[in-house]
Design goal:
Low-confidence stretches: 7-20, 162-166, 368-373, 447-452
Helix content: 55-70%
Distance between the termini: 104 Å
Order of helices and strands: HHHHHHHHHHHHHHHHHHHHHHHH
Radius of gyration: 32 Å
């Protein structure tokens, strides 16, 4: 430990703090250093010196561990616990909890679990703080079984989890269940919070919405929102956006539209996230006209569309074979266009067999700086065509019988920085073959009519 103390810290100790004459003065000075987040000075005060051989007790060690915890010095806190045992000073519950908190601040979740194991070996059960830190480690460390077991152990011990701020242990457990796709357990622990009279906040609600979304249970999301209204749970825009996103993931357009209408009743103003989810679910449900309505509604709310908004509305135009409308949106919102939106526009042209427009749009895609295209949400990002860009343009040429242009695009891919894959070559060959067969059929039909 002495090697880890900065040299300047040892010299500053003498000037900033008087040498303590007794143990109480030592503890007071260490706590003063901890309040100032001076962990190195606190450590220098703790280490015994020949001039003042005061025996350090558990209070002095706890104050020093607290100073390390405030500075997220989890390694130092662990070393202090080892030093306590060597100095025949028994660590207490405060010692372990503070060291576990230091590990949690540094995201050392394995360290939290290891310290809990050491606590058990020392015969310490733990309190609400201990179990909160364990539940947090299970959630942040993606160990949902640990979070569940922690909560069950606390319940078996009759521990009052109401002392944990806002039911953090339950929130961590609900989040862990959602990530583990265990929506039944997430739902159980959510409603248990009400039975234990724990404060239910939007974090717990959002976690349960996520669990329902993963399980494709959109009805559960609507029931949850009704439950929150009945019990006056304060859920804001983020929760309602999560609910709309869940409707989008489950491809439930009309429930998502009804949720948007309820925004005004709740005194909420929809934002870009709300409209992005709505446009996406309309596009997935092949309701392209409804997608355009929400896109225009977003503009009427003075919200700038993002690349996600533009990509979804362009995909909706593609499904409707409305290539001219797709070009109108793409040209009118250049600043929001990224490569995904650009490829969606090319795909709309490909579906409409508009090979000339596709070649023009591909040629307008910048290969360097000074572009008129904005590059999406990042702004100023140089767009470069990828495999999907060339494939869409080549297929559009093939559909129109422009086999030479399609082959030229494949050759330009090889000469550039984009390598055509097997799927690209197969798609272009298939469409060219179909176009050639159709051309041969038309010639045969024409010759048959002339012979008659």
């Amino acid at each position: 430990l002495r090697r880890d103390i900065p040299k300047t810290s040892s010299s500053l100790v003498g000037r900033m703090f008087r040498n303590p004459a007794d143990l109480r003065g030592l503890v007071v000075q260490i706590r003063a250093a901890a309040e100032r987040h001076l962990w190195a000075q606190a450590l220098a005060l703790l280490l015994p010196r020949r001039q003042h051989p005061v025996r350090r007790n558990v209070f002095a060690y706890n104050a020093t561990i607290s100073a390390c915890e405030k500075a997220a010095q989890w390694v130092q806190s662990a070393l202090l616990l080892e030093r306590m045992q060597r100095a025949i000073v028994q660590p207490d519950l405060i010692s372990y909890n503070t060291a576990m908190s230091a590990h949690a601040k540094a995201s050392s979740w394995d360290g939290v679990v290891a310290l809990r194991r050491t606590m058990r070996q020392a015969g310490l059960v733990g309190d609400a703080i201990t179990y909160r830190l364990l539940a947090l480690s299970g959630e942040r460390g993606h160990r949902w079984t640990l979070a569940l077991q922690t909560l069950e152990d606390a319940r078996d011990l009759g521990m009052d989890l109401s002392g944990v701020p806002s039911g953090a242990a339950h929130r961590s457990t609900i989040t862990s269940c959602a990530r583990a796709q265990r929506w039944e357990l997430a739902c159980y622990h959510f409603y248990t919070m009400g039975d234990l009279r724990l404060h239910v906040d939007r974090i717990a609600v959002n976690a349960l919405v996520c669990a329902f979304e993963t399980a494709q249970l959109w009805e559960g999301v609507l029931e949850l929102l009704q439950h929150c209204r009945r019990h006056e749970v304060d859920v804001g825009l983020s929760t309602h956006n999560a609910a709309v996103a869940a409707m989008s993931a489950c491809q439930q357009m009309w429930p998502a539209v009804q949720l948007l209408k309820s925004f005004h009743c709740q005194g909420l103003q929809p934002d870009v996230v709300t409209f992005n989810a709505l446009i996406s679910v309309c596009e997935r449900s092949e309701r392209w006209a409804q997608a355009l309505v929400h896109f225009n509604e977003m503009r009427s709310c003075r919200l700038d569309p993002t690349s996600a908004s533009l990509s979804s509305v362009l995909s909706a135009c593609r499904r409707a074979s409305a290539w001219s409308l797709a070009m109108h949106f793409l040209q009118g919102h250049r600043s929001a266009a990224n490569i995904v939106a650009f490829n969606a526009g090319l795909s709309a042209l490909e579906r409409g067999s508009q090979w000339e427009q596709a070649l023009w749009l591909l040629a307008s895609l910048p290969r360097g700086r000074g572009s008129a295209w904005g590059g999406g949400d990042g702004g100023g990002v140089n767009l470069r065509p990828d495999v999907l860009s060339f494939t869409a343009a080549a297929v559009a040429c093939g559909k129109s019988g422009r086999w030479g242009d399609a082959a030229a695009l494949l050759a330009s891919m090889r000469g550039g920085s984009v390598d055509p894959d097997l799927m690209t070559c197969a798609a272009v060959l298939d469409v060219c073959r179909d176009a050639l067969a159709m051309d041969s059929f038309r010639r045969l039909q024409a010759s048959s009519k002339s012979s008659l």
